[in-house]
Amino acid sequence: MSATVEGVPLHLYRPDPHIRTPAMRSPEWVQLSTAAAITLGLVPGVMHRVDCTHCLNLLVTYPEGCRANCAYCGLARHREESRDFADRNFIRVDWPTARMAEVIARVEAGGDRGRFERMCISMITHPHSNNDTLALLRQWVAALPTIPVSILSNPTTLTYDDLVTLREEGADIFTVALDAATEAIFERTRGRGVESPHQWEHYWQVLHWAAEIYGPERFGVHLICGMGESEQEMLQVCQRVKDLGGHNHLFAFFPEQGSLMEGWPPVDRAQWRRVQLGRYLIDYAGVRVEAMGFTAAGQVETFGLAPAALERVIASGTPFRTSGCPGRGEADVSACNRPYGDSTPSDVRSYPHPLDSADIAIVRRQLAGEEVGTLASDE
Fold it and tell me: Which of 1, 22, 249, 255 lies 20 to 30 A from 319 at CA?
């Protein structure tokens, strides 16, 4: 039987042109990353050196938007008077809106749209986000049980029982967007300092719940590098998460247009590469942060690995790829490649594809402190 949306064959279905943002509300509607929308054929476009994304990133959506006010986020509450919520950018890219029924139908249709190895539901701070996330999870599992689901959670609204319910209903990985590496940065960027409801202690409580409920290798943390922390502070958090049994998903800070931190510079390239490498060694090579050497300012000097072994890790290119939830392949390669979600193709921070020899040569130069982008035109 061919896929349908609201009883209409997929190839004939057209969204109602009269529907506007105020009617676009989860769980009927979701937002998708640009890469997911291109992969599904919902919007035209091509991606530099990437033919698709292997993780379908969905975001719950409401016309009134997110009630938090994180300083670096394009969805923050302070922007509510400037743009419709469903039109705002998030992790550098636009997030077009579609009916969940159409998203499922297009994935069921297969072909080029059948390459998803994972789906992720991203929550926001909203009174309906918990229930609607659960409703979206149930819809997906009923229709596409072979494609695993991650939850990018909003700990502020979640209880222990909520985590249990999400697990019982089919979520196999649970992640927390801690983002800030220190309590002080957390408070400044997403807590009391910006009149936002998030609390550092509760985020860590939810992480401990996730470790208990989901188990080792089935939970993770999002961390943003470049918001004022030292490399040592970032890698110490990575070690803490690893010791709990989780994984660390890194993002390079990129100033979101319209956010309170839009004037901040992107994270320094050399700092980012050192943190990527250190995070990979902690998560996948058995190196502990205590074995690494740091300057008085907290910059990595040594990585706690013999030179030949470290060279093999760098030469693989894997530490510099996007970090996130796993897919069907190697455990240390993320299904969630988030093409260009934290940088432009001319200055790639998280590679959404395997690195070739030219890419690795550029990474080496960046590790050495050279101010070089990833395309010749940036040199």
Answer: 255
- C-alpha–C-alpha distance, residues 65 and 86, integer Å: 8
Q: For residue 18, what are the domain limits?
A: 4-269
Q: Is residue 307 part of a domain?
A: no
Nearest CA to 322 out of 92, 111, 109, 2 is that of 92
What is the rounded CA–CA span in Å between residue 220 and residue 244? 10
Q: Residue 2: is its pLDDT beyond 80?
A: no
Residue 311 lies in a domain: no
By CB atoms closer than 10 A (0-12, 13-18, 19+), residue 293 is exposed
Class of residue 31 by CB neighbours under 10 A (exposed 0-12, middle 13-18, buried 19+): buried
8: domain CATH number?
3.20.20.70
Residue 183 has pLDDT above 80, yes or no: yes
- pLDDT tens sequence across 329-372: 888 999 998 887 787 888 899 999 999 999 999 999 999 999 88
- How many structural domains are present in the chain? 1
CA dihedral sign, ordered 97, 98, 100, 103 = negative
Q: What is the dihedral of CA 123, 129, 130, 134, to 10 degrees?
A: -80
Neighbours of 353 (CB within 10 A): 17
**224 forms bridges with which residues in the sheet?**
251
Check residue 265 and report its DSSP letter: P
In angstroms, rounded to a whole number, what is the distance separating the alpha carbons of residues 192 and 279?
29
Domain for residue 90, yes or no? yes
pLDDT of residue 246: 98
Give whole-number Cα distances, 277 to 4, 100, 352, in Å.
45, 37, 16
